[in-house]
Amino acid sequence: MSTNTNPRLFSFQGRVLLGTRQANGGPASLQWVGDVTPCQIKLSTSTDDAFDSYTGLRQQIGRMIKQTKCDLSMTFKQWSPGALAVGMYATPLVVAGGTVTGEVLPQVVAGDNIKLAQNGISALAITDSSATPQTVPPANYQIPQSPVAANNNGIVIMNNVGTFTQPFKAAYTYAGATNVAMFTQPAPERYFVLDGVDTETGDAVLIRLYRLRIDPISQLDVINDGYGSLPCSGSVLYDPLNAADPTLGGFGRIERVST
User: Fold this and answer.
1) Among 105, 121, 102, 234, which Cα is nearest to 158's?
2) Are 28 and 53 contacting, i.e. CB atoms less than 8 angstroms apart?
């Protein structure tokens, strides 16, 4: 801890790390969640004010602190499974690529869009349901893909359904993917660490919050004109185990290392 008590300008930067809290009150392994800007700790109290009733001026004569509270807000600037898992109460699921045969498609008319069961499809072949299945010519359908996309989302547009017997059936190869299903896990409680630096002085700065209960991502813009972001907030819960150590406190602490 720095022993320099002189007032100084400061400007913090650093990596936000999140992990689970162990039974001993310390963190398990921590994961970097990517660029986070801004990241703000907000301390507050709720109070009960007392005013006199004998002077005729109703002057304040007391203030009782009823509650203390510590909140944190942060905005993830980078898309990562870890950030999404925290902000969407989820566990990322890695799906390996593979092949599909005989996937039954819904009834369609020309111009309809069909979402296949998988994404990143290739080698697509569509057949009908006649007694002797007929192969639908590739000219009768298309797989839309943005010119800037590295892959497609498994959507097929039927340009022409002809006189084929429906339902159509699809066979294809699909790419691997990472899926994040919303609200499939309980509200996460994380041990928060800022592995930081004061860019004004060069001092290393470590900030830790022992029990951060994180709220869901408050807004996810799914169409952007610029870079997207994932705003998130939460409350820091009181930790009686760490509170027993006066050097740690019940919520968190700031450690500054100077040379």
Assistant:
1) 105
2) no
Q: Which residues contact 109 (CB under 8 A, 6 or more apart)?
A: 158, 161
Backbone dihedral angles phi then psi of residue 85, each to the nearest 5 degrees? -60, -40
Residues 19-58 as b or e (16 or more Cβ within 10 Å = b) = eebeeebebeebbbbeebeebebeeeeeeeeeeeeeeeee
Q: How many domains does the chain have?
A: 2
Q: For the chain, where are the alpha helices, taking DSSP H only?
A: 81-88, 240-243
Encoded tokens for 44: 């507050």
pLDDT in tens, 148-182: 888 999 999 999 999 999 999 999 999 999 999 99
Domain around 195: 12-48+64-92+186-257
DSSP state of 253: E
Distances (CA, A) of 79 to 17, 184, 253: 15, 19, 28
DSSP 74-122: EEE-S--HHHHHHHHT---EEE--EEEEEEEPPP--TT-EEE-SSSSEE
Does residue 2 belong to any structural domain of this protein?
no
Main-chain phi, psi angles of 88, to 5 degrees: -120, 10
Render pLDDT for 114-157 as a digit per residue (tens, 0 to 9): 999 999 999 999 999 999 999 999 999 999 988 888 899 999 99
Same structural domain, 201 and 83: yes
